[in-house]
Amino acid sequence: xxxxxxxxxxxxxxxxxxxxxxxxxxxxxxxxxxxxxxxxxxxxxxxxxxxxxxxxxxxxxxxxxxxxxxxxxxxxxxxxxxxxxxxxxxxxxxxxxxxxxxxxxxxxxxxxxxxxxxxxxxxxxxxxxxxxxxxxxxxxxxxxxxxxxxxxxxxxxxxxxxxxxxxxxxxxxxxxxxxxxxxxxxxxxxxxxxxxxxxxxxxxxxxxxxxxxxxxxxxxxxxxxxxxxxxxxxxxxxxxxxxxxxxxxxxxxxxxxxxxxx
Length: 262
Known about the structure:
The chain is mainly alpha-helical.
């Protein structure tokens, strides 16, 4: 039977819609609620040696990496500006909060490892603030704005699925996205010298291996990050297994500890 006119056009439209729908359904993205929670658990396993990320709002210590205090669910640092941004956001959400008085000191120590003006009570006050739902909400908001959302957006633009988006997210968490040679953007640029992402016609496995290679190089530029197990025995292991959608159960090792998400 010969199909012509509007009926033929309608069939073509339906076929296109079906293809788009199927394609979307088959691709797992990290911003799906369950996968976002999994991403947080994996990052927490490396940052806090625990998958219980929701218990890390009050975490704070100086890990001797030259970034001052590291704290909260994503490792906000007093020396890199993101902690300052967080406390400023908290002030807008709850004026007069217990951390507001430290804003002048946080501005002064930004870019350094100094605790000047923060000791001796900043860590105690941080833990007090972490019991406040407004401070928890501020931490999650800044995590999404600075780290999670940019990683997922770039991952989708590059045509990579949940695993690739997570690899980007973990890189931004550790290295930030500033102008230095080990920042996320420059890690990605280094990878582009070796391979192309799927959005540019490249193979997803080849691209993610190139990105992970560049990430390993960036990690090894700092003594505090010379252990690259968070890549090699987690992300790379899932890549080798072809688990682009981060399907559970997930098993991995990082910094000598073993973890499982069922």
